[in-house]
C-alpha cells in the first residue's frame, strides 16, 4: 500500500508551513496515523511530532451542455497534516 499519494502545495498550506511547520499530504484512505508518520519519516528523513487526519467525501457536480445536464462526482480523499520538530524542513521542490 502506497501511503503518501501527493503533497498539498497551496497558498494556505504554504502559510501554515511557514508559521507552524506543518505540511499537508493526500494519503491513502485506509492509512492510519502511525503508518503516515512512519512513511513521512522514511521518505523525507525528518522527525514527526504529530499527525492530524481529515476525510473528505466526494461532491456531486453538474453542468449544462448542449445535450442536457451532465452529472458526476468528484472523488473522496483523505488529507493528513503533519507537524515536524523545530529544526526539520521538507523541500518539495528539490526533485525538480
Describe what this molecule looks like in 3D:
A four-stranded antiparallel sheet has the order 1-2-6-3. A two-stranded antiparallel sheet has the order 4-5. The chain has one domain: Alpha-Beta Plaits. It has 96 residues and is of the alpha+beta class. It is built from two helices and six strands.
What keywords describe this structure?
Alpha-Beta Plaits; four-stranded antiparallel β-sheet; 6 strands; alpha+beta; elongated; 23% helix; two-stranded antiparallel ribbon; 2 helices; single chain; 96 residues
Q: What's the pLDDT, averaged over the residues?
A: 93
The total number of structural domains is 1
Number of helices: 2
Indicate the structural class. Answer: alpha+beta
Strand tally is 6
What sort of overall outline do the alpha carbons produce when their principal axes are compared?
elongated
Largest sheet: 4 strands, antiparallel
Topology (SSEs and partners):
Layout: E1 4-7, H1 11-20, E2 22-27, H2 33-44, E3 48-56, E4 60-65, E5 68-73, E6 77-84
Antiparallel strand pairs: 1-2, 2-6, 3-6, 4-5
What would you say about this model in short?
This protein has 96 residues and is α+β, with helices and mostly antiparallel strands. The protein has helices at residues 11-20, 33-44, and strands at 4-7, 22-27, 48-56, 60-65, 68-73, 77-84.
